[in-house]
Automatic annotation (TrEMBL):
Protein's UniProt name: HAD-IIB family hydrolase
Keyword Magnesium in record: yes
Record-linked Pfam families: Hydrolase_3
Coiled coil segments of this chain: none
Organism: Parendozoicomonas callyspongiae
Protein's UniProt keywords contain Transmembrane: no
UniProt-recorded Gene Ontology molecular function terms: hydrolase activity
Keywords from the named record: Hydrolase, Magnesium, Metal-binding
């Protein structure tokens, strides 16, 4: 068996991307190290495909990626046959966006819950809530399999809302800024699928997985990888990771903490 090969799965907002500026600049040294060592950097994010593809182009990243909390998995055509083409094949898990919107409209009409989804907002409202530009907000609204919502109702009604979603085989998770409603998949599923792909493509290699995230929606990913890293949140409390073995926590929030942890772990494992 050949030497260890690493796979790095990462959340974006508040993790590789600065919570306020969305910059990756503080992580530039670690990004260069991954590139130099041909280590796949796999985005595993609540962002949309449109948003993630734009970032991939900016960072010259040609690897597979998972979007909308693992409900969509995208792989460049021919990637696992050694032909990295520009076109991308995407697998959608569970309900599509229009179907999710229909379920949410039905629940809201019947129970009167107070919440607002991205589909209820104009792009300028999304831009105001997120700090994104107008064009970026349009991409954030270009959804496949999930709906971010702003919950404006009580905590008690939120628990009822979760139960109603579960009865319809849907789920609610918390991201850096919003709740997210989707049906099938999570960030752990994306790790499982892609790790299997890499093992099948390179059966003589020993793959070691690294995962980095800062929120509750990252816990399924951190539970699946060999080396989970909780990126210290910029705001609020860190999620409970007491049941995750081998968990480490960055010494700084956002891409600065991401940078140091990735550099240290890559040097340790290679």
């Amino acid at each position: 068996m050949n030497k260890n090969r690493l796979l790095v799965f990462t959340d974006l907002d508040g993790t590789l991307l600065d919570h306020n500026s969305y910059s990756t600049e503080p992580a530039s040294e670690a990004l260069a190290l991954l590139e130099e060592n041909n280590i796949p950097l796999i985005f595993n994010t609540s962002k949309t495909r449109s948003e993630t593809i734009k970032l991939r182009r900016k960072l010259h990243n040609n690897h597979p990626f998972a979007t909308e909390n693992g409900s969509c998995l995208s792989v460049p055509d021919g990637y696992f046959q050694g032909e990295k083409k520009k076109t991308v094949h995407t697998t959608f898990f569970g309900l599509l966006y229009t179907q999710i919107r229909q379920v949410l409209a039905s629940i809201r009409a019947e129970y009167g819950f107070e919440f607002t989804g991205f589909g209820d907002m104009a792009a300028k409202e999304v831009a105001h809530l997120t700090g994104l530009s107008a064009d970026e907000a349009v991409m954030a609204k270009d959804r496949d399999c999930s709906e971010p919502i702003v919950w404006a109702d009580t905590d008690e009604n939120l628990e009822t809302f979760k139960r109603l979603l579960a009865a319809r085989n849907m789920q609610l998770t918390v991201g850096g800024r919003f709740y997210h409603v989707f049906s099938v998949g999570d960030k752990g599923l994306a790790v499982h699928w892609l790790a299997d792909y890499f093992h099948a493509e390179f059966p003589d290699h020993h793959f070691i997985t690294i995962g980095l995230g800062d929120g509750i929606n990252d816990l399924p990913m951190l539970n699946k990888v060999d080396h989970p890293i909780l990126v210290r949140p910029m705001h609020g409390n860190a999620p409970d990771t007491s049941n995750i073995e081998n968990i480490s926590i960055t010494d700084a929030p956002g891409p600065a903490g991401w940078n140091r942890s990735v550099i240290n772990l890559v040097h340790e494992l290679l």
